[in-house]
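Problem: given the chain below (116 residues), write out its structure.
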Amino acid sequence: MKWSEDIIHEEIEFTENPVQTFLKGDLLHYSYYSEDEHWAKARKYAMMGAQRDLNRKNNFLFFRSFFGSVSKFIKMYFFQLGFLDGKAGFTICLISAFAAFIKYSHKRVLLKGKSL
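Solution.
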């Protein structure tokens, strides 16, 4: 077994099928403990995502940086029912939309630097 080489959302790659077992109880996973940590992690992942996507062909980056973030908010808040979580749901959707905007904006900067 080894870790994948993905920059974001790396995962374990097994060479053979692992034995599955079930945990007794709950496995709690907290990605962040405060709103400030969530903002910081979103910025970090946005920059890493821009770097990861740098070699992918992507036209209309300005279009994507604006409308991609708006569509991210709408998808999470309405379709994934973020509004049911009240203020916390709104904040999470807002941070995710902001991260999408930062990702495409940073990618545009990286592409400009690459073409120089």
